[in-house]
Amino acid sequence: MIRCFFKLTTLFTSIVLMFSFGACNSSADNREKDFVKGVYGDPGTLLEAGYNFNELGLNAIFVRSYSLNDELYHTAREQGCKIFVEFPVLLGGNFLEDNPQCAPIEPSGEMSPPADWFMGVCPTCPDFKEDRREYLKSILDQFNVDGVFLDYLHWHAQFETPDPILPETCFCERCTNLFFTKNNIDSPEQDIPETSNFILTYYENEWREWRSTILTNWIIDLKEILKSNQPKSLLGLFYCSWYPDEYDSALYRIMGIDIDDFVKEADVLAPMLFHHMKDRPVNWIGEYLNWLDSVSTSIRPGSTPEIWPIVQAHNNPGEVSPEEFREAMTQGSSAPSSGIMMFSDRALLDDPRKIEVMKELYLTEP
Ligand SMILES: [Zn+2]
Fold first, then answer.
1. Quick one: which of 302, 314, 324, 364 has its CA closest to 344?
2. pLDDT tens figures, 3-62
3. CA of residue 174 to ligand 1 center, whole Å
4. pTM
5. CB 97 within 8 A of CB 111
6. How far apart are the CA of 241 and the centre of ligand 1, in A?
7. Rounded (to 5) percent helix, strand, coil in the chain
8. Which of 99, 169, 176, 366 suits a disulfide with 104, CB 3.0-4.6 Å?
C-alpha cells in the first residue's frame, strides 16, 4: 500500500528521501531481506590499502570479471561478502582488432568510430557471441558466484557523457539480411547506403523492434548459461538509466533497450545512476527509482526484480564532493531499492572522506 503511495507522490517522496538513509524500511517488503551494501570495481584495492570489508560495512562486492582472482574471492568470502561479477557484453574494442567482420556499420557503409572511450560491436556477429559465451562459461567454471551482472548492454553508443554519442548501427550485410529474413521483406539488393535508406524510410518501426529483440536475446542466451551452470546465481543488468522519451527516444531507438524486456528477464536491475556524468541533479536518482518501481510493478506484478542502483562517487567531470556522494547514496538506497553500490573503489581511495561517508551509512543501517 505504501509502495503505491510512493508512485503517486514521486516528487514529494524524492525530497523526503534526501534526508534519511533507509528511512522507508517499514514500507518495502524486499527490505526485510539483507540490504545489499556493495562497492563496484576492483575491490581488492581496498584490501591492498589496508581496509577490511567488514570494517567498511560491506556485505557484497561487485567485481569486474578480469579483476576477480582466487585471493580476492576467498578473502571476500572469509569476510562474509557476497560476490557478484560484472560481465562485459557488447564491449568490442579489443576483439575488433583481429575481427573486423564484427565491426558496427553506419548507414554510409563505414565502420562506426569509437564513441568516446567506448567501442561497441555488431550484436549479430556469431564470432563475438561465441567469444562471450565461452568467456562466461570460463568464469562460472572457476568461481561460484552469487550473481553475474551484465554490462555494456546496448548497441554501439555512448551515454555516460552530458552530450551522448548516438550513431545509427548496424547496417552490415549480416544484420540487414537477418532483418529482411525475419520480417519477410524482399531485400532490395542494393549497396549499404541504399539499403539503410530503404530500411529507415519504409521499415523503421520493424527495424527498431528487431534491434531490441537482438539485444534481449543476448540477455536470454547468457542467462541460460548462467542458470544452467549455477541455478541459484542471480542475473543482474547494468544499464543506461535514461527515461524512454529522452534524447528522441534514444534508449530504444539507438541503444535497442526495451525496458519492459529488461524487467522481465532480470533478477536484479542495476540502473547506472551517474548523476554527475549525466549532468543531472542528485534527486533525479530517487525520482528514477520510483519510476522504475512503477514500471516493474506493472510488468511483473507480485514478482518484481530487485533494484540495486549504482551511484557515482567518481570525480568526472569535475568533482563529486563527499556531501554530494552522501546524498546520492541516500537517494539510491531508499525504497524501492534493496541494495546499492557505488562507482567505484578507486574513487573512494582517491578521497578517503568518501570512504567515511560509505562506512557511516553502511554501518548505521540495520
Ligand atoms: Zn551488424
1. 314
2. 332 233 333 333 333 333 433 333 344 444 699 999 999 999 999 999 999 999 999 999
3. 6
4. 0.91
5. no
6. 25
7. 45, 15, 40
8. 169
